[in-house]
Amino acid sequence: MAVFFYFWKVFLLGKAVPKNVKSKANELVKAFPGKFSEDFNVNKRIVTDELKIPLAKEQRNLVAGFITRKIIKLKAA
Fold first, then answer.
1. Is residue 40 part of a domain?
2. 4, 19, 21: which is closest to 58 by C-alpha?
3. Which of 19, 40, 46, 64 is spaced 20 to 30 Å from 52 by Cα?
4. Could you tell me the CA-to-CA distances from 61 to 5, 13, 69 in Å, in that order?
5. Under a CB-based contact definition with an 8 Å cutoff, are residues 6 and 18 in contact?
6. pTM value?
7. Is residue 3 in some structural domain?
8. pLDDT (tens digit per residue) in 46-61
9. Using H for helix, E for strand and C for coil, what is the string for the chain?
10. Residue 51's CATH number
């Protein structure tokens, strides 16, 4: 696995979405099936404000983005 340093961040080449983000997003979608929408910003607000889940900014955005993609795929199927 290659590691790149860019200013203060470390980028690991590998999986696009980490396993812990996928598991947290899947838990939230199963626990609150009708709460999320196809809009990223709405999902981000739901994760932070309504559900009050303590996540770092980057992890919150990854979870909200993964939920958004998952909802779009579920509605398309």
1. yes
2. 21
3. 19
4. 21, 19, 12
5. no
6. 0.78
7. no
8. 999 998 888 889 899 9
9. CCEEEECCEEEECCCCCCHHHHHHHHHHHHHCCCCCCCCHHHHHHHHHHHCCCCCCHHHHHHHHHHHHHHHHHHHHC
10. 1.10.60.20
